[in-house]
Amino acid sequence: ARREGGPPGPRLAPSAPRRPRPSRVVDPGAFSWSDANWLAPPQEELVIYELHMGTFRPEGTFEAVVLHLDDLRDLGINAVEPMPVAQFSGTRNWGYDGVCPLAVHDSYDGLDGLGLLFRRVRED
Questions:
Q1: How far is CA 12 from CA 26, 37, 105, 107, 109, in A?
Q2: CA angle 6, 9, 12 (to 5 degrees)
Q3: Number of neighbours of residue 98 by Cβ within 10 angstroms
């Protein structure tokens, strides 16, 4: 299916590719952004941490990452790149075979968990 103004495919596809539950389309405009005044650090000052969701913490969730953001800040990290976040089969994966690249993986806390991570990363 093609959404108006967007690429084909679902934005959330729990348990893909064998979907015991149907996909659902979510409205990204419904996310309540709270960081209107946030500015990214200048590019030359970025210290980026490639954060693998399934191995950063045993829980493997966005919420578990949020609880340890201060540890990353203490190391001097000022940007995180969570990966992989796209839906794939199973609960842990390196992300090379995601089946729904526009869908946030449900075992990591799904779209709500990713929103929580966005909010917390941009708080300070």
A1: 7, 29, 8, 12, 12
A2: 105
A3: 18
Q: Residues 114, 85: contact at Cβ < 8 Å?
A: yes
Beta-sheet pairing, 86-87 with 100-104: antiparallel
Chunk the chain into consecutive blocks of 10 residues (it has 124) and report each block's average pLDDT, rounded to whole numbers. Answer: 49 51 70 80 94 88 92 93 80 70 79 85 75
Q: What angle do CA 1, 95, 51 make, to 5 degrees?
A: 120
- Cα separation values, 42 from 30, 79, 107, Å: 29, 11, 33
Helices assigned H by DSSP within 14-109: 53-56, 62-66, 69-74
Environment class of residue 79 by beta-carbon count within 10 Å: exposed (0-12), middle (13-18) or buried (19+)? middle
Q: How far apart are CA 84 and CA 86, in angstroms?
A: 6
- Asked whether the whole model's pTM tops 0.85, one would answer no
d(CA 19, CA 66): 28
